[in-house]
Amino acid sequence: MGYPMFCFIGTGFFLHRHAAPFLTFRWSGSVPAVRKEKRMYYDQHVCGARIQELRKSKGYTQEALAEAIDIDAKRISKIERGVISASYNDMILFSEFFGVTLDYLIIGKRQDVDALKKRVQDAITQLQEALM
Question: Boundaries of each HTH cro/C1-type domain copy (predicted)?
C-alpha cells in the first residue's frame, strides 16, 4: 500500500485509488466561480491611515503614542505612511490602546468592542446559570 497520490485531469482532480484502496475520493467538476462581491483585503497604506486617524482623534502625537505603547516613533511614522506593515504585535498594541478590534485596523470592519464584550459576558452568565 502506497501513499495517497493526487492526479489532476482537465478541470478536476481525483485521489488515485491504487495508491490507497480504502480511500475512494473523486472529483471532476469545474472550478467554483469566484464570488462577485467585494473582497476584503489588507492594504498597508489604508491601515496606516486608519491608525493615524485613530491617533489624531485621541489627541496623541506620534512620539506620545510611541511612548505609551513602547514602539519607536519612527516605526509609527513608517506604519502610518504605509512604508512598512505593522507586525502582529504592533497591531495588537494599537488595537488594545485605541479600543478597536483587529478587524477594524486590518480591513476597516468596525465593531463596537464594548458591545462585543457585553455579548461575551452575557453568554458566560447564561452558561453559568445553566450549569447551576
Answer: 51-105
Say what the pLDDT of residue 110 is: 73
**Coil, strand or helix at 40:** coil
Q: What domains lie within the chain, and their CATH numbers?
A: 1-31 (no CATH), 44-114 (1.10.260.40)
Q: Is residue 89 within 8 Å of 69, Cβ to Cβ?
A: no
pLDDT for 74-106, tens place per residue? 999 999 999 999 999 999 999 999 988 898 898
- Residue 50 confidence (pLDDT): 94
Judged by DSSP in three states, 111 sits in: coil
| Nearby residues of 105 by Cβ (< 8 Å), 6 or more positions away | 47, 50, 51, 86, 91, 94, 95
